[in-house]
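Record pair follows.
FIRST:
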Amino acid sequence: MRAALIAFLFASTPVFAFPVTVQSCDRQVTFDTAPTRAIANDVNLIEMMLALGLADRMVGYTGVSGWKTLDAELREGIAELPELSAKYPTREVLLGAEPDFFFAGWNYGMKVGGEVTPETLEPFGIKTYELTESCIHIGPRPKISMQDMYVDLLNLGRIFGVEDRAKALVAGYEARLAEVTATVDPAQPLRVFVYDSGEETAFTAGRYAIPTAMIEAAGGSNIMDDLDKSWATVAWEPVVERNPQVIIIVNYGEVTADQKIAFLEQNPAFAGIDAVRNRRYVVLEYVEATPGPRNIAAVEKLVAGFKGQ
């Protein structure tokens, strides 16, 4: 009887074979075993790890307190983990934690030509997986889609041997997205601008940033869709000329969403913009406006905001 029970439990427990190979930007990365000492950079990447139940595989995180704050849910999820660097980590900081895995992205903890890159970490036994949205910084890639966030979760699932968990999570997100966008009319998209930060110029989302995919899913069109970048700075003149009907405010850092709205409304140059004139704003927290588990709830917020609810 006992032998039969053991055989049943073994047969019903998924076995994930290593090595596994995943695509990371323009590289293929092979993992002989699942990482046990991981570091993630930035709040959205940290939350991907938490959504997959991988906190116990982490030795720390980087890139949060120097710019952002953690809400109660995130604080609880990483309460036992140290923040190794308030902003981008140096190679020395990473090596000091003796990790075997770094989950980051270009301009999400790594810079092209910087001291922390997949190539500089590999000799120290540290494998790197790059956030898909960030791959545009090192080469051409297709336009952003909601699938990119799913791809990252599924790849992390394979890397850490929790593929079933990742597939179930993604299936739930896909079902929820279909539900919240069921009434969206794609034939008449609203003109939408993403205002991240800046006053002399505006830091915004281009065609390769996840807000573009979320805006389209919610029934809008990013007025900066022709900007061949993910996140970049633009002059205000084209914003005024393209006259957005809704402005998404990304809330983080020292300048609050209310202060950003006040700046828009107190500047006579913006008085003719439909969104400003009609006070049509949707506020997204940083963790909602960057690739991660909260993108689906963010789309739901956009759907309501685009309908004026």
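SECOND:
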Amino acid sequence: MQLSHLTWIAVQQLDRTLPVVIPIAAVEQHGHHLPVSTDAMLLEEVVRRADTTLGARALFAPLQWMGNSHHHTDFPGTVSASPRVYLDLLHDLAENFLMHGFTRLLFLNGHGGNNTPAKQALFELRQKYRARTDLLLLFTTYWDLAKPHETRDGYVQTEMGHACEWETSMILRLAPHLVVGDISTLESVTFDYGFDPAYRAWITKDRTVKGHIGSPQHATAEKGEHLFASFAAGVAPMIDAMTQWDASRWL
């Protein structure tokens, strides 16, 4: 169910162990061919499909469209909160639900740049409420909840990139009129960071000139439908695990 569709009285009557899903995305450049709202649009569709399946088994908060996208700010159209500001925003979003008595929260992410600040926000909240034994504070990214390349042939990529085969396929399925130009002329951009296993600090223009990473030239709407279906289906097992969690034990 959608929080934004309920009155405060209806919210007050909900079971406080009901899993609360807080979708977080971004508005940022997505190459020459995809709209800046790609991350928000894709996560919104995953949430819409998951909500249709789950019904009253979970409470979905409104999508937070601003993300931590400072690594994309060399490209016009990117809107970003700096890492510490974004961390504090997510901290307060989650704490609002805790203040109202909810105990099982999930940040459902749709943008790679949100990973570190979102995890840190939850880490800090757990330390703040260290005396509580009833809190379940989780973070996951929607494309980590399924392996669509293993259940359909034809994918070139085996992981999510940026304005890549996967994201371009999903936009072709969702809003093909927003895909600009002939994607068949685009070239692949490597996923590699180099220097593994070390972490390498980077900004997007270090890795790509046009703004995409991956192989968008291989995208199709049919692949996009399979991706949406796989990712949306992947949300339900996570919600079920949250519901079944026994607060008296770590696992």
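COMMENT: The longest helix spans residues 221-244.
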